[in-house]
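Cross-posted from the bioinformatics board.
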Amino acid sequence: MLLVRSRLVARAVQKQCQKVERRNYVTKVFNTPLSGMEMARCGGIASMMRLPIASSTEGLDACFVGVPIDHGTSNRSGTRFGPREIRTSSVLVREVNVATGATPFQSLMVADVGDVWVNLYNLPDACRSIKEGFAKIVANGCIPLAAGGDHTITYPILQAIADKYGPVGLVHVDAHGDCNDTMLGEKIAHGTPFRRAVEEGLLDTKRVVQIGLRGSGYSVDDHKFQLDNGFRVVPAEQCWHKSLSPLMKEVKEQMGDGPVYVSFDIDALDPAFAPGTGTPEIGGLTSIQGLEVVRGCRGMNVVGADLVEVSPPYDTTGTTALTGANLLFEMLCVLPGVKYN
Amino acid sequence: MLLVRSRLVARAVQKQCQKVERRNYVTKVFNTPLSGMEMARCGGIASMMRLPIASSTEGLDACFVGVPIDHGTSNRSGTRFGPREIRTSSVLVREVNVATGATPFQSLMVADVGDVWVNLYNLPDACRSIKEGFAKIVANGCIPLAAGGDHTITYPILQAIADKYGPVGLVHVDAHGDCNDTMLGEKIAHGTPFRRAVEEGLLDTKRVVQIGLRGSGYSVDDHKFQLDNGFRVVPAEQCWHKSLSPLMKEVKEQMGDGPVYVSFDIDALDPAFAPGTGTPEIGGLTSIQGLEVVRGCRGMNVVGADLVEVSPPYDTTGTTALTGANLLFEMLCVLPGVKYN
Amino acid sequence: MLLVRSRLVARAVQKQCQKVERRNYVTKVFNTPLSGMEMARCGGIASMMRLPIASSTEGLDACFVGVPIDHGTSNRSGTRFGPREIRTSSVLVREVNVATGATPFQSLMVADVGDVWVNLYNLPDACRSIKEGFAKIVANGCIPLAAGGDHTITYPILQAIADKYGPVGLVHVDAHGDCNDTMLGEKIAHGTPFRRAVEEGLLDTKRVVQIGLRGSGYSVDDHKFQLDNGFRVVPAEQCWHKSLSPLMKEVKEQMGDGPVYVSFDIDALDPAFAPGTGTPEIGGLTSIQGLEVVRGCRGMNVVGADLVEVSPPYDTTGTTALTGANLLFEMLCVLPGVKYN
Amino acid sequence: MLLVRSRLVARAVQKQCQKVERRNYVTKVFNTPLSGMEMARCGGIASMMRLPIASSTEGLDACFVGVPIDHGTSNRSGTRFGPREIRTSSVLVREVNVATGATPFQSLMVADVGDVWVNLYNLPDACRSIKEGFAKIVANGCIPLAAGGDHTITYPILQAIADKYGPVGLVHVDAHGDCNDTMLGEKIAHGTPFRRAVEEGLLDTKRVVQIGLRGSGYSVDDHKFQLDNGFRVVPAEQCWHKSLSPLMKEVKEQMGDGPVYVSFDIDALDPAFAPGTGTPEIGGLTSIQGLEVVRGCRGMNVVGADLVEVSPPYDTTGTTALTGANLLFEMLCVLPGVKYN
Amino acid sequence: MLLVRSRLVARAVQKQCQKVERRNYVTKVFNTPLSGMEMARCGGIASMMRLPIASSTEGLDACFVGVPIDHGTSNRSGTRFGPREIRTSSVLVREVNVATGATPFQSLMVADVGDVWVNLYNLPDACRSIKEGFAKIVANGCIPLAAGGDHTITYPILQAIADKYGPVGLVHVDAHGDCNDTMLGEKIAHGTPFRRAVEEGLLDTKRVVQIGLRGSGYSVDDHKFQLDNGFRVVPAEQCWHKSLSPLMKEVKEQMGDGPVYVSFDIDALDPAFAPGTGTPEIGGLTSIQGLEVVRGCRGMNVVGADLVEVSPPYDTTGTTALTGANLLFEMLCVLPGVKYN
Amino acid sequence: MLLVRSRLVARAVQKQCQKVERRNYVTKVFNTPLSGMEMARCGGIASMMRLPIASSTEGLDACFVGVPIDHGTSNRSGTRFGPREIRTSSVLVREVNVATGATPFQSLMVADVGDVWVNLYNLPDACRSIKEGFAKIVANGCIPLAAGGDHTITYPILQAIADKYGPVGLVHVDAHGDCNDTMLGEKIAHGTPFRRAVEEGLLDTKRVVQIGLRGSGYSVDDHKFQLDNGFRVVPAEQCWHKSLSPLMKEVKEQMGDGPVYVSFDIDALDPAFAPGTGTPEIGGLTSIQGLEVVRGCRGMNVVGADLVEVSPPYDTTGTTALTGANLLFEMLCVLPGVKYN
């Protein structure tokens, strides 16, 4: 008796376990999110955007993957539950991007591949396994869309990405530059990933932009490292009271045709829009500006992306996780190969 | 012994039970909200805006009425407590609209008439009783200002309104078009009221505007039904970074002199401003824009209005209910007959 | 057009505004709570136990009345919203006490008379108006069941009660003895009401019992004042791991036939059962023991009662307010004249 | 490239998608929960107890299944998210019941089969599909352990159960008898399932026990229907201050060898232990007593069970969902065939 | 054994108890916040911005001081915990204002001097002691940066300030004008401080600006008192959709060289940005505009400032307290004598 | 100008910075908590129990010290804020233990010494510095009362304790045995401290008792390691429905005269009493039983103690932190040298 043929039981499961092999048919069939019109949104296993759960990236053009850590955080923890909560919130996301016309699920084969294994008690070892995991994901060209986890994860992800693609351009949206040398004496933490990346040659430093930086700092030349290395730094103050679409046109030019990685720290947004995070700073971007930034990446050669620092214990209304889910969807929509109506 | 003559006991009750007959005096005397200067805001029974509670609409020019349902919701429920929580939050609303100069309580006889009877276990039957209840309210010209409840309620309200006034113009503020044909196979749910209304001829479809639509959708032509029927659709993206007052001037022209119904789904606002709702979508209107839209209805021939989808269990700080209460007050301020200073 | 004859609109209002005069009929008709079977619990104005709201105590045997203050609190404030939140939670209370067989609404004429006027910025003046308000309530024998507000309110209530009945016995359930001389130098605060009451001769001190006292204290003979005045003190430690029904039999004997006032501070209960209060102490009574205490007052000559210190901002799940509403119902059930099945 | 062979990526998925066919090996291999020792608890897709997700009950001895509805609730809604939140909380449950020695995952083949399809806008139709879904589950003897959802679900589940097994005995743990005839005029709602079940002959009424009933009621003979039909009714008051193990010995005798269904409404527990529910009543069972009741079912011929009325929006600390997950685990542990050490 | 020389124990204490005398060295050494790079942000006693705690203002150029009251509030209370929660949130603030280049901790000697003694049960007496406390603080020129507490505190602070400096200019950012004559009959409450200040000649009324006023009011000429006295009133509506930097240029001109007091009621900000307050009004300033206002005070002769009305019980995500902490830091940055890079 | 002589400003600071040297007077003067009668509880810097903050343990008989980490947690994190929140909650604790007669602040010199330095990104290094910090604390006999932090901290604390006193007896109250060999492959985590302690000979294993163990486990002989090493294990089931005072008499005998360490994991308590923790298990101890256990340690030779696993982000009402503060106070009360009345 196969329940999967019945309308009555376990529809979520039916869709979520549909065989990846379906795509081998002559007419390519893509995974699609389980529609809220078909199965109540409160029903079914909460996979990312209610997509099928895959145990391999074989045949996938892109995948959602979680990295559930918080031992890189310097203030409020809790980001270890980011992937799970973003999945839960993502049941509200539907198939088509009405605003931009993007139809990612009619263009790419996408699945939720679960979470990378992480050692919760040893941050360097977690970084090692994250790198190893992402190396497998990108090996045959699957584009990872990672849900953090704290921002430390971007360091090992970039290691895997650069191993595959060479130094990449970076669209980094964040309240903080995350280019400290050490934190409490440690080289690996959520405030240091991009200095490590520069040191290891993972970034094409002329093709790096940081958007939304703000907040008090440890010195008056808080962005010295970045500027010395040729990053473009766009403080939040330069973003106030206006659309960021013009900025993104310039950024697109800066990025050129080379591979680009997008790293979006949810604390780039003002805490009014994303309170559920560990190191919030007032005076930040609106979620509208966040959408403009990600939509502005359309046309870039995006080879990977992440959405980090959602901390569910501090996200009392679920808005932050919902925003994370939507931004991941928007990232998917700007991947190479997505068709627009 | 009548406590009502004493300053000491039960002042809230005194005001709230003041006889409707007072208006029959030669000099018309209107109901006024119990002032926070007179009785501590935390004191007294929480009627809408601390108005008298009436058991009939006799002699009323307008009334606040609750419709406490949530069985039309597709994601998070809880809107059944919307009316109660909006009443509780409304104790902060005062008598005069300082910004616009409107003095509704010196112009119209207004009361809180309680909640419509609803069958919580049978949505079509709830719709039937809502229609019947609103038919009585509008029978002699009293203008209902309804507090939802989920958006399903607008369908039976429009039935009652159209029975009285014929097809009406519609100012619909919402994140979603709510023009689906069915949801999970059902014709009646909170995503279908306006398609039902069109089918039944309740709307003057050339005088319909939808403001704030956004979010992912089920198809690329998500607004086809509306456009085919002549609605004006204003997606949220067209509202970003600007005042909506100019838009409302156009809308006023569109509405002309005919009867107009205003339906405001609180999820039109960005979840930063109104997190306590069931199907939030990021990138929405600000509460400032919400005020501009309602204030922009001044001069229209408004015959009814609703504020729906406030879900208190998800409104952790009370901001959403407070916003709902204020928008209902602003709706009252733009009713025909309200004097401005 | 009278809506009150319709099943469809404003049923809550219908019941809640039913004339008090109904009781003058030959066959006495009592106010009854609006049943959840008749009108959805989420519907209607939230009066106490969904009873009619009265603007006078004329004809009432007992009444619920709120005293919304928190300027007597020494730690967390918020009790000013106690009455409102207890009303909201009380919609779950039904007509009959199944466990004890009490049928209060078939025995007594009861209504919600709203809140006493209080000066939020001047505690002594608030006490003055509370006394004055309760004097009117008790003038013709109506028994007040007060919802606080912080425990300061019991002082002026006892003044009004003793003016009418002479010194009363006291069943005082609390984590604290509230017999301090001063707090921060002031004579009136929520930790001093019972010393004031003794000083003014409001209590028949041999007929006073304090149940549930615990927590750290300012001196090793923290209960000296009470013991010196002949109170019976039952620390929480004497209540652990057992039923309090045997204790209440002794208390009933202690109280004799004289008038008795019941004062229940919700912090008598352990914070597991009543977290929403200002000065919680661990190791307290269970709600079962709380029920046993109030039910154990049956047969006493109760002339007034209060339930104080519910602080809604700290009552994240609503359990504390719900407990308050239920204890007020149980107090009603033990009033003289209530029939038992 | 199969990620499933790697320690690094997507271990949750690996286990959760392991083939059901494994059990066909000579040495039977059972599904086991993904251990917290193996994969961080915050990692992986949240299936029930981190078990594999199955799209069919083929080969399963027992299954967890969700029924995500709340349109049968009379007060606070939100139970539609019960299954999802119980799954999330269940990541804390481990493989072995240390207290009782039960080793369910070394005795039975168990999986999470997702959620039954439900029509959120039509309660009778939801009941129809629930019945149909459970009919398939029980068809070949798989024992369903259902996570609600409100208590309405037990009615259609019992229909499916009785179709398979004939009238069953019932261990019903609840604050309410749920034997009303109608609610707001409707026959189907969360307060009526057991009257419906009696009327349709689904219960062996001499083998029914209701444990934990309490709270105010609509009449003094609130349990008349049950007593008239031969149920044993054990009010909460009879449970106070003692172990329920002796009671369960009697219940086991009452149940005899016939098929038994266990229905546990989380509001049987005191709101101190389970605040996240819709119609809480004070003075309830402790979670210890809840464990004693379920553990006391060992040796009965349990053919199905449910855990209902967990309402996540009101479960601010997650304790209620956690309790639900543990009670479902304990139910699994008392199923026929489970080995004890 | 002095732990202070060890890296291992109690670093927070070390810094926080460092002698004020250090500044007497030839090379002036200022107090600096304990860096998050040096000691984990979650560690150590939570003083304001992790500064040393001083028991005197001797040698201080500026100080942070708390005024923990809420008995002046008219709606939601809880501001008594404002100072404590702002301290807790302030651990995120770092040493340098990157956006403006201000280096306050390299320019001024600053410390946290704890809280003023307040009589919680007697508002006029609390005002008396607040005045007395601030008189000592300002006696030798130390500039107080006060954390409220409700807005009543500004009245006695202005008394102390004016005693020292004569009538002062006022930059008042607020949703409300706070110029009522009385509230519930009392002269002292959080809605009256500025009328009292005018009556007592504490303000140079031509040098007063009120920014952000909005919300419903008690009369159409709600700002009559202010306008009659020559205040500049800038309603929120005049602030919508634009930067407030141009406004602040005008304000700076208005203020001239005379002494200026800055009073920032957090409810000036929209509840999206600052939900944790007692009398929120929708349609308010953004936190960006709040920053612009405070930064726009640079160059004024600021002699004192306060940040009031943060109410932690309603600040579910901590954003409001965090905003309060940041605005206090920005106030520090515009004090006379602060060097800019 | 010394503010410390004034009643008006900064009383909290006055007491908290009072010189430790005071004790050198002929008549020994001890530190005492700042009384709530003297300074409003909401006022002043939140040190532990409002004690003076010391920068050294010189002259101290006992001290409170925080260890703010959460990178040893396996499920929900957040314990890094345990020390801070326990301090905040501890303002409710007063000077004398009324129930037991203990007068710790008239017997011992006690202070809050702040927090140990911890490396948030490297758990083994954090353990190293914790050990080093506690070595200094215990060097001259000061007894540390540690506030966690997760349970990992007990491992390095025991290292320091055993270095000073040799192998110690252990009263370990917990839901879990914490004797795993590894977690996710790591030797150091919050589930392994006591196995490490045994391996390193830090415990006198015949003088070890574990109280409150429960919950599902990884194997049927989950306590094998402990039993093999001679621990006494008291599962929660053996604690149900009774006082633990008799048990503690046995434990006292078991402990004899040798040095004893008390380690109290707040999850020993049922989540009804302590929801704010990371790995809650239902069916646990009551807070009454928790008090009985700690009070039962009176007369033992306690040389150190900790209260761990309070996780504020999950402690929505503050009850868990309050319980932690009270248990730390009770631990202080049973230290050698404390006088009883």
